[in-house]
Amino acid sequence: MGTWSLEVAKMALYITFPVALFHYFNQPKYFEEWVVNKKRELFPPESQAHREFEKAIQEIKRQQNLDLVKDLEAK
What pTM was computed for the model? Predict the structure, then answer.
């Protein structure tokens, strides 16, 4: 069995280790770099071709909605 000094040392280690890890990994420069990289990975910047494709899809949906309204008005 250990003495009281061993118990104090273990308790200091138990408290210091998580606090030190929290301090190290929550530095703003590491966190900001990680967040920016993850956002760029999940949501890459849109290209011009992608925007044109989205516009074409919206135009087709708009035309389909207009056709649907005309059909409903005719009935």
Answer: 0.40
